[in-house]
Design a protein that fits this description.
Growth Hormone, Chain: A; two-stranded antiparallel ribbon; 15 helices
Length: 405
């Protein structure tokens, strides 16, 4: 199974079956996750009567605690020379979490279920990205990550549409939707086990056995200084990039009904899916730095607008813009990092990035919840706009042009 980008036979570039298979796995997992993601904040605030600060706490604790695993699992996948076992375990945990949310009677139990979900993401993400990186040639990295994100975000379109249909059919029976959401996630795990193959190349002669902790510091010290600089920039940016749950709460705050809020979220994901792969091709042609600069700047504008608007009408413009921002940064960030690291350290590097930015999710989401509750909803978005402007300015000044390894 190969994916072709539509170029003529002599110049078209193949995307290997491993990348396509991982895209299918992400497609089904995101159908599952996005069936419930836009309704969890609504479920928390309307059914379980949780305040906005609790939503921020749930998102922050879940993301930051699980992020501790991202670097550990990435490093372990490098050390053990195995990716698939981490990816499979991670997707399995996420599948189980959907059923747990359906059982929740209080918001702390939702916190527990969200933690299990993020634990799964923390276990799989760095190893999955490293597996994709190892499956393609350097000149196709942007396409590979763009295709993967496009398929992932296609699931993020299908999921909320299914949620809308189920909300209509079952009269806002959120718990039933949570249970049904576990089905596509389980299908994704089965596809992973059947279709995805390990790609790490090992020597014919086994290497001498060493303790698992051996060479960890060496690996970190050997990472490119440009990568470490980008890591710091990403941390500053992430300090203001709170959970997308606050975008959903903002839409509700501005008067959108549950169905319209979910529909706006579908529009966001549709835009994200549409632009992800073309952006990946553009990255391979003009470089990731220019694309990331545009994306980070667009984020600052979006968060400023979310703070300023007073009418829900503007949500229909802002959510698609947010989808474009995601397409300009998500897969592109990984392609940019890939330029600065050798393949044998990919798991560690991706893990360091994901852990660092994920840990900031606690600060950003908890701070957003407090700003929302004690000052105003707008204050949460003004803070995010400020930190993103600082980060993008630093990025423009300090980030060098990279050569692909």
């Amino acid at each position: 199974m190969e994916y072709f980008d539509g170029q003529p036979q002599k110049t078209r570039k193949k995307i290997p079956r491993n990348v396509v298979a991982m895209g299918l796995v992400s497609l089904f997992n995101d159908i599952s996750s996005e069936m419930i993601y836009p309704i969890v904040p609504i479920f928390l605030t309307t059914i379980l009567a949780a305040p906005a600060s609790a939503v921020g706490l749930i998102e922050g604790v879940a993301e930051s605690t699980a992020s501790l695993l991202k670097m550990i699992s990435g490093w372990l996948s490098d050390r053990l020379k195995k990716r698939k076992i981490f990816v499979a375990a991670g997707y399995s945990l996420s599948a189980a979490s959907k059923f747990l949310i359906g059982l929740a009677q209080t918001w702390p139990f939702v916190l527990f279920a969200r933690f299990i979900d993020r634990l799964g993401k923390g276990t799989r993400t760095a190893a999955r990205d490293a597996l994709i990186l190892e499956s393609v040639e350097p000149e196709n990295r942007g396409r590979a990550f763009g295709l993967h994100r496009s398929m992932d975000s296609a699931g993020a379109v299908i999921g909320p549409i299914l949620a809308l249909l189920l909300i209509y059919l079952y009269q806002n029976n959120f718990r039933l939707i949570f249970f049904l959401a576990g089905i596509p996630s389980t299908i994704g795990v089965i596809l992973l086990l059947l279709l995805v193959k390990e790609k790490i190349k090992t020597n014919l002669e086994p290497a001498p056995k060493q303790p698992l902790t051996a060479n960890y510091k060496f690996h970190w010290r050997e990472l490119d200084p440009a990568f470490k600089n980008f890591l710091l920039i990403s941390v500053v940016f992430a300090l203001g990039n709170s959970s997308d749950a606050f975008l959903i709460l903002r839409a509700q705050d501005l008067g959108l009904a549950t169905t319209l809020t979910v529909a706006a979220y579908v529009l966001f994901n549709l835009t994200y899916s549409f632009f992800s792969y073309p952006v990946g091709i553009l990255v391979d042609k003009i470089g990731a730095k220019k694309i990331l600069t545009i994306g980070f700047t667009l984020f600052a504008f979006i968060y400023l607008a979310l703070g300023l608007i007073q009418n829900g009408f503007w949500i229909w413009f802002i959510f698609p813009l947010y989808g474009i921002y995601m397409a300009l940064t998500d897969g592109v960030t990984k392609a940019y990092i890939a330029q600065m690291i050798p393949k044998e350290k990919a798991g560690t590097a991706f893990g360091a990035y994901l852990m660092s930015t994920g840990m900031c999710m606690f600060v950003s989401s908890f701070a957003a919840g407090l700003l929302w509750k004690f000052i105003s909803p707008s204050a949460a978005f003004y803070f995010g706009a400020l930190t993103s402007l600082i980060a993008v300015s630093w990025f423009i000044i300090s980030a060098p042009r990279q050569t692909v390894r």
